[in-house]
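Allow me, if you will, to draw on your knowledge of protein folds for a short while. I have a record of one protein: its chain in single-letter code and its fold written as C-alpha cells. Kindly check, if you would, that the fold set down in the C-alpha cells agrees with what the sequence suggests. Thank you for your consideration; the sequence and its C-alpha cells are set out here:
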Amino acid sequence: MKVLVVDDEKIKLITLRDDLREANYDTIAVESPAIGLQLVQHEHFDVLVTDLRMPKMHGIEFLKRVQKEQPHVIVIVMTAYASVETAVEAMKFGAYNYIKKPFSSEELIQMLDKLKMLHGKGKQRSQLKVPMKGRSPYHHIIGKSQVIQDLFDLLENISDTQSTVLIYGEPGTGKTLLAKSIHFNNARRHHPFKIINCSGVSAETLDRDLFGDKQTESAFAHKGTLFLKDVAGLPAALQVKLLQALEDQELSLDRNGQMEGIQIIAATTKNLRAKVQNGEFRDDLFHRLNVVPIFLPPLRERVEDIPLLINHFLDLFSPNTAIQIAPEAIGVLTDYPWPGNIRELENVIERLVTVGDGNQITDDDIPLELKLPTHISLDETLTEISFQDIIRSTERELIGWAMKKAKGNKTQAARLLKMKPSTFRDTLAKYIDQIGGRT
C-alpha cells in the first residue's frame, strides 16, 4: 500500500514516515497540503493520512480537493483538536476514520494493517465513509462504538454474498438503513431495491405485492434486492409460498453458478426462533432466512455513537445553517435511554432544528420529557401498581427538577413547568420535606 502523510509538524512527520517505512509501507511525507495536491495529481495513493489544522489550507478543504483527484483514496485524519464536530465533518467528506494527537506510530500502523487486509480483498472504500458521493446518507451507518466497528467488519465480509440475510433489531435501530447499505455496496446496486412490509396489510395485498397477479409482476423478477420488513408478520399461507420461491431461486443459476434472481434481506423485531417453537413461524422457512443473521444493537448499548448521530442529524436538517449544540445538551441527550432508538433521536433533533430560533441548541431547548428520571419500569412481571403513586412520584420529580434548575427560585421554577406561581408553591409545599429547596 502506498501512503501519503501530510502534516505541518516536521518532527512528527519525519517520525511517522520512518516508522511506516520500517513497517513496509511505501510512504511519502510532506509538510504542505499544496505539495500533497501536486502529488495526488501525478501519483496513485492507497491511503492519505492528513492533519486537520494546517496553515494556508484547512484539512477539510484539502480532503475535498484530494477526493476530486483520487475519489477512491482512503483518508485518515489526525488532529489535536479532535471533536465530534470535526470528526463528523471529516467523515462527511469521505474520511475513513480519525486519530487524535498525540498518538503512537504503532496505533496508526495497526489501523493501516487492518486497511491492508481489506485492500487485499479489493476493497478500496470502507463502510465507514459517510456518505459516499452520489448516495443518500440514509444508505450509511454512523458509529465508532465497538459493536458498530464489528458490524462494519461483517459488512465487508458479506458485501459480495448472494446469501439470504436476516436482520434482528428493536424498532428504530436502522434495519432498513442496513438493508440499503448491503444492497448499495454489492454487485446488485444497479438493480432495484424493493421493500415489502409483511405486517399491517391484508394477506391479499401482501400476496399480490410479493408474487404478483395477471396485472402485476412478481417481486422475484427484478434481479435486485427484496427487503422483507417485519417478516415475522408473514401469514402462514404466504410463508409456504415464500419458501417455495426461495427454493426456486436456488434452482435458477447462470453459467457461473450465480443466482439470476434476487437477494432476500429480511428484518424482524421479534424472536423468530421463539415463534418457530410456538408454531407461529415455519421452521424450514426460518432456516432459509437465517443464513446470515445480523443483530443491530439498541442505541442504549452504543452510547458513544450518540454525539456523532446528533451532529449527523443537525447537518441533515440544517444543511445551510451551522447549528451548534452545547456540551450540556449533548450530555442530556446521551443520558436519555432512547426507547425509540435512532428514529426517536432523529425526530428529536428535527424538532429542535425546526422550532429553534437561533444557531445554538442549549440544555434549556431539550424537551422536558427527555430530562425526567425514569425510576419506574413497567413490564409484564408487575402484578399491580398504583396509578396515584406514579402520579405523585412523577409530580415530585418534576418539582424537584424545576427547583434545581431554577436554583431555588420558585417563580423561575414555575415558569419552567409552565405553571401558575401560586399553583407551583402549593404543589411544592406537599414535597418540600422530600426534595428540599431554597425559599
Summary: The radius of gyration is 27 Å. Residues 121-139, 251-259 have pLDDT under 50 and may be disordered. Residues 9 and 307 are 29 Å apart (CA to CA).
